[in-house]
Design a protein that fits this description.
homodimer; nine-stranded mixed beta sheet; five-stranded mixed beta sheet
């Protein structure tokens, strides 16, 4: 993409109303723009990151055997009356009437709807187990929206729902999602801590929150150092016994940890860090299937309420968490897996025909090789171009200037380390396409 | 995907409340499920089709130079007061108050929002022209939702907005979108007629509707036979003069045609067919930029209101149009480009170990070759499996049974023609992976 034809409104100034660094960077780097309190438009660069995160979330859901569908944003109040959550849910639920006076709401979550869809279609034990998921916009009418998309009102969430015949089946579905979550966060370049959560008003038997470690996190966590040592290989090859170990590792939020009188983790292995919650999973059993009167026929002919779980990831919120965990004083440092482009190509002298034709040629070759490139072909000062590239945080920068070209080299810079190297065009291309 | 692990609730019965064939087929083939009046959940098979359509729409928008962003579903009423459309818009607009009493609405379209986003970021002629688009859920509170997703309330739309310095620039942006639309519909396997539309309440100078030809269409069209003769090659190589020809070809809705006293098309070249509107494009000039007081600096230092156009495609509606145009008495006949899977693999005897292991092996090889396959591995009667496959309309069926295997063959069936052929496994795979 040529920057001269793109839409990337970056800003040098730190917006006064943005309190945390992720919010500041998202505004400054032209990722989002506020359109109402707690509601944001995703500008082209931000949307690309959002789509990359979605793709990784989807791939891991699919690998775990979950099946994607898509439920609408608007729901009928009657559906929520069946589960008795309509009155129980607070003012965070956006409620309204349509033109005919029917009570409707903008879905904050979908337990009721998926239960109705699934169990109106499925009648037999032979069609279980199933886990269904969707990635859809949700609305929670926060009383004080803040921190940009971290605590916004309209947000993108992946929510999955599992249906099993019995508690044992539910445990297997829960564990499959548990591991899928750890894999998802690892692929996003994030260190996640699965925190044992009180099951609370949603009910049920088992629940974990997933927190991303970041100094600016809103929760204080106490956890077993073994969590930091879980390797990617272990996640990829996780079997039943390693999953049992992983779900059992000690991790608590401060408030819960304070209640523990006999912490199983020796003091030298107990870590304290701050975290940002980006996922939450629940095994809640028959709460919805029973309250909504829905059942399937078991193999012995009896009628059973399926055991269910629900599994959420805050897809848009993850961008905030990534930024809190991955930035420096110059701007964003995207993990490779979610970067909006892999490379920023900088033409240092767009007013110089020979530099421009060299940069254009490199751009063409990068495109042919499938390297996602943002090409700064504008006629601007080099300093401003560098500042923009550092701010938007693409993993690599390739700088083409008259002096280098005279001696047959370009400059390749790694954003994360600031490391710069003068290399031939051929070797730069070889490195980037490897 | 193994059907035994999928979620595909098909039905033999024609739903009583579905009046038109596309609605009936979408319900019967398990593509959608109604969750409230005019509001639908997209089941896994339907979602795959929706995503395929989205992908083609996006690719053609990108090729035309449009840049994707994503605006939120919820908008502030104040934004619509600036353009004076808040009061003008009818009861189709879903309006409500948030918990603080701010007036909000579920966006039926985004002219105001994109104008504000773009022109608060762009100040100079050097950043024009630009065309921005998004694919987002919209809500129109239809008084009588009907025909399934064809006239639903929550629907998916691609809307693009162009910004140019002058009328001539706007004309070029309009023409680029005009051709992109024809290419999009051609790739979807549809025959589209661009109908000259009255500009109506949205104002402006030029407007076309795009209709898909189908006997059940709601509009009667009169058009120049030359439109039927536009070839894909002509669309792909369209230059300025051929675009001028295409935008000028005669096509009118009945009501408008009746007003024409001197039709330029000779009677023998005048076609009459019914159509379903799936796209609408407008060149409306400075209506929003002027009413919202937004301008950019021109090269001579003066201040100008950009000339704008807007360009919509009913993405979810397109599925209805495709089904109206492409079905037979047995069910759906998907065009290859949007089919949810390319192939249905049928195991005729899931209770026979040797048939199942042969079918499993073929399935594995199809997956390795990247052929999107729905594998009916269930222990059901062959007749029911055939009926399901014909109903869901995948382009190809591959049938593996004991008799064929004994003589080393499988049956390959083309859904569109019903043509069946006994071929070796190798030659079937070669055909499908070609």
């Amino acid at each position: 993409m040529r920057l001269s034809r793109y839409f990337l409104p970056v800003s040098k100034e730190t917006p006064a109303d943005a309190q945390i660094v992720s919010h500041q960077l998202m505004l400054r780097a032209g990722l989002i723009r506020q359109t109402a309190a707690g509601i944001y438009a995703w500008l082209p660069l931000g949307l690309k990151v959002l789509r990359n995160i979605e793709r990784i979330v989807r791939e891991e859901q699919d690998k775990a055997g979950a099946i994607e569908l898509l439920m609408p944003t608007i729901q009928s109040a009657d559906l929520w009356r069946q589960s008795e959550r309509y009155d129980a849910y607070g003012p965070e639920m956006l409620r309204f009437k349509d033109r005919k006076g029917s009570e409707m709401l903008y879905g904050p979550t979908n337990e009721e709807m998926i239960t109705q869809i699934f169990l109106s279609a499925v009648k037999s034990y032979r069609d279980l187990p199933r886990t269904l998921y969707h990635v859809q916009w949700k609305f929670r009418d926060e009383v004080r929206p803040r921190f940009g998309i971290m605590r916004g009102r309209e947000f993108l969430m992946k929510d999955a729902y599992s249906f099993d015949l019995d508690e044992e089946g539910l445990k297997a579905s829960y564990e499959a999602m548990f591991v899928a979550y750890l894999r998802t966060f690892a692929r996003l370049g994030l260190q996640a801590v699965p925190v044992r959560a009180p099951t609370g008003p949603i009910g049920g038997t088992l629940s974990h929150e997933f927190h991303i470690l970041a100094d600016t996190g809103e929760s204080a966590l106490f956890y077993d150092a073994a969590i930091d040592e879980v390797s990617r290989d272990e996640l990829l090859s996780a079997d039943a016994s390693s999953i049992a170990r992983l779900t059992g590792l000690y991790a608590m939020e401060e408030e819960e940890h304070a209640k523990v009188t006999d912490c199983p983790v020796p003091p030298e292995r107990l870590r304290t860090r701050r975290g940002i919650e980006v996922g939450h999973i629940f095994a809640f059993g028959t709460k919805y299937s029973a309250s909504m009167g829905l059942s399937v026929q078991a193999s012995d002919g009896s009628s059973v309420h399926p055991h269910m779980g629900s599994y959420g990831i805050g897809v848009s919120r993850l961008i905030g968490a990534i930024l809190e965990a991955s930035h420096d004083e110059k701007g964003i440092v995207w993990p490779e897996s979610v970067a909006p482009f892999r490379l920023g190509l900088v033409n240092m002298r767009a007013d110089d025909g020979s530099v421009t034709s060299a940069a254009d040629e490199i751009y063409g070759r990068l495109q042919d090789a499938g390297v996602e490139t943002l090409y700064d072909d504008r006629d601007e000062r080099g300093g401003a171009k560098f500042a923009t590239m550092d701010l938007i945080g693409l993993p690599w920068q390739l700088i083409v200037g008259p002096r280098g070209l005279a001696s047959g080299v370009v400059e390749l810079k790694r954003r994360a380390t600031g490391e710069r190297e003068e290399v031939s065009v051929e070797s730069a291309l070889a490195r980037l396409t490897a």
